[in-house]
Amino acid sequence: MNTSLDCIPCLLRQALEAARQVSKDPALHEQVVREVLQWAGEMDLNQSPPAVAQRFHRRLREITGIEDPYLEAKTQQNRIALELLPSLRNTIQSSVSPLMTAARIAIAGNMIDMGVNGNVTEADMYQAVQNALSEPFYGEGELFCQAAAKARSILYLADNAGEIAFDRLLIEQLMPERVKLVVRGAPVINDATLVDAKAVGLDTLVEVMDNGSDAPGTLLDDCSQEFRHRFTKADLIIAKGQGNFESLSDQARGLFFLFKVKCPMVANHIMQPVGTQVLAYSNFGTDNGPLALPPFRPLSA
């Protein structure tokens, strides 16, 4: 998915919020915003939004000297999410379809995205969970269940801190011994890293690796050779979040995208309204994976 002109105001907002996250110095805020404005004039709109955001966040870390500007926020998000797990696990276990209920809860957790909303609150997290089973939903649930039943190896691409605790509930339903969890290779926004996977106990449940990249998405050319090998060989790939959708939606192999639509540009791209929970399968008709699932069906109302 290419970067739109409408993405530029969002990136500028994100830049100012990130600068204020790490410093109270107005001079630093101005420096960051001016640099982003300068970059906007040179921006390659053929790149995906995560590729553009990667450049900015690298520069932010250089300017501030802070390796993980969102560390405090991520720690709090993980803590709150962990507190919710016992009751959510009970909801899943008592449901008619535990796998699909776990998937919807994992998708609801995708609202914990400081790239879209820099002021995610504890109340927001609780509300998202409460609405998880009643919010608008576009899903290829039957296809997802079929793929999960067939797969011998599952590559699960995580997105954000906090959200990664909800991912644990879905991974528990997928039989963890088949799952390889992938997180970012370095801190960027509030995206999950190895530190976050350990904070919510996923390292004791599944094998965890990082992708070698500091992009807020999955830019295959920027990822490690080991990750690219895993990506090619996995029977089933589950990609969480808008960043993974924006950077992988044009890949010619089967992926299931699980995310909440939070951006008008993504909403227009998939023809679903903002706020919709999405579980979509896409292989653009050339599935290289061994599951041999049906070809991509365009999303529509």
Describe the structure in brief:
With 301 residues, the protein is of the alpha/beta class. It has helices at residues 7-22, 26-40, 49-64, 71-93, 98-108, 122-130, 141-150, 163-173, 194-199, 225-233, 241-248, 264-270; strands spanning 137-139, 154-157, 179-183, 207-210, 236-240, 255-260, 277-282.
Characteristic terms for this protein:
about 300 residues; alpha/beta; Helicase, Ruva Protein, domain 3; Rossmann fold; seven-stranded mixed β-sheet; 12 helices; about 10% strand; globular; disordered C terminus
Question: Helix and strand layout, with pairings?
Answer:
Elements: H1 7-22, H2 26-40, H3 49-64, H4 71-93, H5 98-108, H6 122-130, E1 137-139, H7 141-150, E2 154-157, H8 163-173, E3 179-183, H9 194-199, E4 207-210, H10 225-233, E5 236-240, H11 241-248, E6 255-260, H12 264-270, E7 277-282
Parallel strand pairs: 1-7, 2-3, 2-5, 3-4, 5-6
Antiparallel strand pairs: 6-7
Helix pairs in contact: 1-2, 1-3, 4-5, 4-6, 4-8, 5-8
